[in-house]
Design brief:
By secondary structure, the protein is an alpha/beta fold. It is 36% helix and 22% strand. It contains 21 helices and 24 strands. Strands 3-2-4-1-10-9-11-14 form an 8-stranded antiparallel β-sheet, with helices on one face. Strands 5-6-7-8-12-13 form a 6-stranded antiparallel β-sheet. Strands 16-15-17-18-19 form a 5-stranded parallel β-sheet, sandwiched between helices. Helix 1 runs antiparallel to helix 2, helix 4 crosses helix 5 and helix 8 runs parallel beside helix 14. The structure holds 2-deoxy-2-amino glucitol-6-phosphate (AGP).
């Protein structure tokens, strides 16, 4: 997730673009850049001026202070790296000869296009997928001499997600933009016009917006905006007036980043899957891992290390690894792993799971695994983070920056990528038939739509939170693959609502914890209608017999559970292995609304940091 901005008009462009980029830093902040062009009368052939740097927008401002730019046209970018580590050469804008571009998204066919252009003599400066766009467009313009026609042709060559802004030095007050899969909107001004990834960027300049849809592009001039579809057919767009405050806009109208990030999960999973499932659900490919089947087959066991929410993702993955890939899998709390003197287990794949890639305990655990000569792989959301440099092999979750301390969308994206790793292992070990794999990947691909259905029940969750707002202790119970979700849901309630929450495998209650149950304990039961449900139902009956209040999350239409519960939250029917993606959404929402009811600082809970970089 990155932020792009563009301006064409009658004012100096760079301060406008810089200020707008600052409002998009929540979309990415590992590098930034701006490209402008001076237009002095007929001198339209000036070279571009480009300023780029690794680091935040403040670094870019320093650069502009020392090397000012002039001109009334500019495009800018603040980056959340997906391909290529954060650096000046990987920062946007990317230029090739007379074309300069900024891009947000993932060009899935970037490798093929890059090879095609290299064969035609092109040489690339960066490791990014985006740079090929500048090369491709400049080449098309030189072949046709027609900027607008070349833009249309170029767009049709791109596969994947892109929000683009493009300048051509021979027609610099004609800014080309296009949208497919990544957000992009236009701002209308007086003698000036704007483009940006998101509303906050432009609110100080305009409240008149044209929201582009997928498959739409536009040519933006200081006094004219032409919107068209990718075939070039003009489209009449309705201007929308948006009166949000800046604070509201950065959260897209949600009250907190956490709620925004909970609702982002369907899109995040689509981004996470993008380019990773071969058409026909035949295979999984990771653009950052080129291990052949024999390498995946060579592993005799999997060992996962992580902390907090990431550890819960590992616990779920253990079920998948053993049930689907038929491979032994261990999951350790990183802070425990590093001191338990793990014994070397030959041909072990050690997977470190960390959203930030900077968690001290997880990094230390990776060092332990390295001593055991395990093969190392990290699953992280942060390009070029410390964990990547330690493991070398990495799969990025592409969830975009997660601002709220409580992890939601990154957990879901971790699960998605760990499910894909499980499939790779299952295929290599021939643990499942091709038909089974295809069906599983197809079901995995539809999880986003299922999450959308669960999110529609948010009002009911809010009502249940109000009903139980005065209880100060909870049990969260689950069995099998739902047990780690009980743990994760309990962590959320602890860390943002500050409520004492005991999470247990439901089968464990009879071994002691049941002694606590009374009508003062609401018991949240994660109970999808899977093969362990009958066991879960027995546990629920035991709780009810001691006046425990049952809040259950179960499969829609499952009357046995609904009738046994004081409150029931339905998930769509889904295969057993994938129920965690759905049950977890309710527990994220429940913790969020409980925290709001208690007046807590939801995005910055007390005593907590987003990344625990100390022991
Ligand atoms: C999650 O809600 C917590 N903020 C915390 O448990 C977090 O998951 C843990 O600190 C691990 O962080 P990491 O994924 O960045 O390594």
């Amino acid at each position: 997730m990155c932020g792009i901005v563009g301006y064409v008009g009658n004012r100096e462009a760079s301060p406008i673009v810089l200020s707008a980029l600052r409002r998009l830093e929540y979309r990415g902040y590992d590098s930034a850049g701006i490209a402008g062009i001076r237009i002095n009368g007929a001198e339209k052939n000036e070279n571009f001026q480009i300023r780029r740097c690794e680091g935040s927008i403040d670094r870019l401002k320093d650069l502009l202070d020392t090397q000012p730019m002039v001109g009334t046209t500019a495009i800018g970018h603040t980056r959340w790296a997906t391909h290529g580590r954060p650096s000046e050469k990987n920062a946007h804008p990317h230029r090739f000869r007379d074309v300069v571009i900024v891009h947000n998204g993932i060009i899935e066919n970037h490798k093929e296009l890059r090879q095609e252009l290299i064969k035609k003599g092109h040489r690339f400066d960066s490791e990014t997928d985006s740079e090929i766009i500048a090369h491709l467009l400049d080449r098309l313009i030189r072949e046709t001499g027609d900027f607008e026609k070349s833009c249309r042709t170029m767009i049709k060559r791109l596969e994947g997600a892109f929000a683009l802004a493009v300048l051509w030095s021979h027609d610099p007050d004609n800014l080309f933009v296009a949208k497919q899969g990544s957000p992009l909107l236009l701002g209308r001004g007086e003698g000036e016009n704007f483009v940006a990834s998101d509303i906050p960027a432009l609110l100080e300049y305009t409240k008149e917006f044209l929201i582009l849809n997928d498959g739409e592009m536009a040519f933006i001039e200081p006094s004219r905006i032409r919107v068209m579809d990718f075939s070039g057919k003009l489209i009449q767009k309705k201007t929308q007036r948006i009166n949000w405050s800046l604070a509201m806009a950065e959260k897209e109208g949600y009250d907190h980043f956490m709620l925004k990030e909970i609702h982002e999960q369907p899109r995040v999973l689509q981004d996470s899957l993008r380019g990773r499932i071969v058409p026909g659900f035949k295979n999984v490919i990771f653009d950052t891992i080129d291990w052949k089947a024999e390498k995946w087959r060579s592993f005799s066991s999997v060992s996962m290390v992580a902390c907090g929410t990431a550890w819960h993702a590992g616990l779920i993955t253990k079920y998948w690894m053993e049930q689907i890939a038929k491979i032994h899998a261990d999951v350790d709390l990183a802070s425990e792993y590093r001191y338990r003197s793990p014994v070397e287990f030959p041909k072990t794949l050690s997977i470190a799971i960390s959203q930030s890639g900077e968690t001290y305990d997880t990094l230390a655990a990776v060092d332990e695994a390295k001593k055991l000569r395990h093969s190392l792989l990290s699953i992280t959301n942060t390009v070029d983070s410390s964990i990547v440099r330690r493991t070398k092999n990495v799969i990025y979750t592409h969830a975009g920056p997660e601002i709220s301390v409580a992890s939601t969308k990154c957990f879901t994206a971790q699960l998605m990528n760990l499910a894909l790793v499980t499939v790779k292992l299952a295929q290599a070990r021939r643990a499942q038939s091709k038909a089974w794999i295809a069906k599983f990947l197809k079901d995995l691909s539809s999880i986003s739509r299922q999450i959308e259905k669960v999110l529609k029940h948010e009002d009911k969750v809010r009502e249940i939170a109000k009903k139980y707002a005065n209880y100060n202790q909870y049990f969260y119970l689950g069995r099998g693959i739902s047990y780690p979700i009980a743990l994760e849901g309990a962590l959320k309630l602890k860390e943002i609502a500050y409520i004492n929450t005991q999470a247990y495998s439901a089968g464990e209650m009879k071994h002691g914890p049941i002694a606590l149950i009374s009508d003062q304990w609401p018991v949240v039961c994660v109970a999808p209608n899977d093969r362990l449900f009958p066991k879960m139902m027995s546990n629920i009956e035991v709780v009810k017999a001691r006046s425990g209040k049952i809040i259950s999350i179960g499969t829609e239409g499952h009357k046995t559970l609904e009738n046994a519960s004081d409150d029931f939250l339905p998930i769509p029917k889904v295969r057993e292995e994938l129920s965690p993606f759905l049950t977890n959404i309710y527990l994220q929402l429940f913790a969020y609304h409980m925290a709001v009811l208690r007046g807590n600082n939801v995005d910055k809970p007390k005593n907590l940091a987003k990344s625990v970089t100390v022991e």
